[in-house]
Write a structure and sequence with these properties.
The protein is an alpha/beta fold and about 375 residues long. The protein folds into 2 domains: about 130 residues; about 220 residues, Spore Coat Polysaccharide Biosynthesis Protein SpsA, Chain A (Alpha-Beta Complex), CATH 3.90.550. Helix content is about 50%, strand content about 15%. The strands form 3 sheets. Strands 5-4-3-6-10-8-11 form a 7-stranded mixed sheet, sandwiched between helices.
C-alpha cells in the first residue's frame, strides 16, 4: 500500500509512523481538555443575580502585616449590599499598625469581629489562624478570601446564587501582578473551575470560596500540613464532590486581587501547592499532568514529524493542519473564557504559556525536591 511514494509497510518508516501516532494521540488528549474542560468556563451561566438568597454569612480573612491592604479592603467588605453578614479578621501577630486600624473600624461597625493572636499563642501557620476565624463564626455559611482582594458592592449578593450547594467556588483576577503571574493564575483556574463545572471538582483557591461550617468541623485542616503550605486547597479537596459544589462566575462575584508576585515567589508558592498536593485524595493529585505531558509531546513530535516528512508533501501538510486546528481551538476557547472572567489583553500571552510554562513548572518541581530534603534533615 503506497500513497505518494510513502510505503507504510517499509520498516524504515516505523520511526516516522511512531512520531505521527504520538502526535495524533497527544492532539486528541489536548482536544479533550480544551473542548470538554476549559470550554465550560466560557459558557454563560444561566443563573441571574435575581436568584440570590438572604442566608447569613461569615467572611473570614487572615491578616499578617498587611495594614496597607487592610485599609483598602475594609470599606469594600463592610459596604456589601447584603442583609446579614459578619466579617471576622484574624490578626496573626502583626507588627505593623493593623491592630489599630481594626480597632478603629470595629468601633464604627459592629459586624466586624477581630481576633488578635499574639506571640504567646505560639501560632503555627495558616491552618490555626483560619481555624480560629471559622470557629468564631456565628453563621453556618463561611466565605474565605484574601486581604489583598477587592470586591464589588454586590459580591456577596452575586455569590449567594450558589448557596444551594454546600461549597461555592469563584474566580479571582490578579490585576496588580505581572503578566506571567496573571497568565499562570488564569491557566490554573481553567483546570480548577473547568473540572468543577464538569462535576469533578478537586480543589479551590481559598481566595473567593464558600463552604458550610459543618464541613470544617467534620474534616478540618490536615494536621500534616506545615507553616509554609497553603491549607485551603487540601481542605477543599477533602470535602468537594460533584454533588455538593457549584461555580459562580457572575461578573460581580469575581474579585480582584492586588497581590504582587515575582517569578521566584510564584515558584515558591506553586512548589508549596505541589508539595501539599501529596495530601489530595487519589485520582485528583495529577489532574493537570496529562495536559502538560501531551502538550509537550505534541509540540516535540509535530516538529519532528515535519522534519522527517519534509519530502512527503501530504504528510507535513497534514501535520501543519493539525497544528493550526489546535491553535484555532485554543484561540476560540481562550477568547470565550477570558471574556467570561473579565481578563483583558491576555490572549497572546496565554498562547505563549504553552512554551515557557513547562520550564516554570520544572523550576517549581525542583523547589518541591528542596522542600523534601529540608524536611528530612
Amino acid at each position: 500500500m503506497k500513497v505518494e511514494n510513502f510505503d507504510f509497510l517499509n520498516t524504515q518508516n516505523i520511526p516516522l509512523l511512531a512520531v505521527l501516532a504520538v502526535t495524533a494521540i497527544s492532539f486528541l488528549i489536548q482536544m479533550y481538555y480544551y473542548l470538554f474542560i476549559f470550554r465550560k468556563v466560557g459558557v454563560k451561566q444561566r443563573k441571574s443575580a435575581m436568584e440570590h438568597t438572604d442566608e447569613p454569612i461569615s467572611v473570614v480573612i487572615h491578616l499578617k502585616n498587611e495594614s496597607l491592604n487592610l485599609s483598602k479592603i475594609l470599606p469594600s467588605i463592610l459596604e456589601q449590599n447584603y442583609p446579614e453578614y459578619e466579617v471576622i479578621v484574624v490578626n496573626d501577630n502583626s507588627s505593623d499598625d493593623s491592630e489599630e486600624i481594626l480597632k478603629l473600624a470595629g468601633t464604627h461597625d459592629s459586624r466586624l469581629q477581630i481576633r488578635n493572636l499574639v506571640a504567646s499563642n505560639f501560632v503555627h501557620g495558616q491552618s490555626v489562624v483560619l481555624g480560629v476565624g471559622i470557629k468564631a463564626a456565628r453563621y453556618s455559611r463561611i466565605a474565605v478570601t484574601d486581604v489583598a482582594c477587592r470586591f464589588s458592592a454586590n459580591w456577596l449578593k452575586s455569590f449567594s446564587t450558589g448557596f444551594d450547594s454546600e461549597i461555592v467556588t469563584g474566580y479571582t483576577r490578579y490585576v496588580a501582578a505581572g503578566i506571567f503571574v496573571r497568565t499562570a493564575n488564569y491557566y490554573e483556574s481553567l483546570f480548577r473551575i473547568g473540572y468543577a463545572l464538569n462535576g469533578k471538582p478537586y480543589t479551590a483557591s481559598g481566595e473567593n470560596d464558600s463552604f458550610r461550617k459543618e464541613l470544617f468541623f467534620a474534616k478540618g485542616f490536615n494536621p500534616l500540613l506545615r507553616k509554609p503550605e497553603r491549607v485551603e486547597p487540601v481542605f477543599f479537596n477533602s470535602v468537594m464532590t460533584g454533588g455538593n459544589t457549584s461555580v459562580v462566575l457572575l461578573p460581580e462575584a469575581i474579585v480582584d486581587s492586588e497581590k504582587t508576585q515575582s517569578f521566584g515567589n510564584w515558584c515558591r508558592e506553586r512548589s508549596g501547592g505541589m508539595f501539599s498536593g501529596r495530601l489530595f485524595r487519589r485520582g485528583t493529585r495529577h489532574v493537570k499532568l496529562p495536559e502538560i505531558v501531551s502538550r509537550t509531546l505534541f509540540y516535540t513530535c509535530s516538529a519532528a514529524a515535519t522534519v522527517m516528512a519534509a519530502e512527503i508533501r501530504w504528510l507535513w501538510i497534514s501535520v501543519a493542519g493539525i497544528f493550526l486546528l489546535r491553535l484555532a481551538v485554543q484561540i476560540c476557547v481562550f477568547s470565550a473564557t477570558q471574556k467570561m472572567l473579565g481578563e483583558r489583553k491576555l490572549l497572546w500571552h496565554t498562547l505563549l504559556w504553552d512554551f515557557y510554562s513547562v520550564a516554570a513548572y520544572l523550576c517549581a518541581a525542583l523547589m518541591v525536591g528542596h522542600r523534601k530534603a529540608m524536611r528530612y534533615q
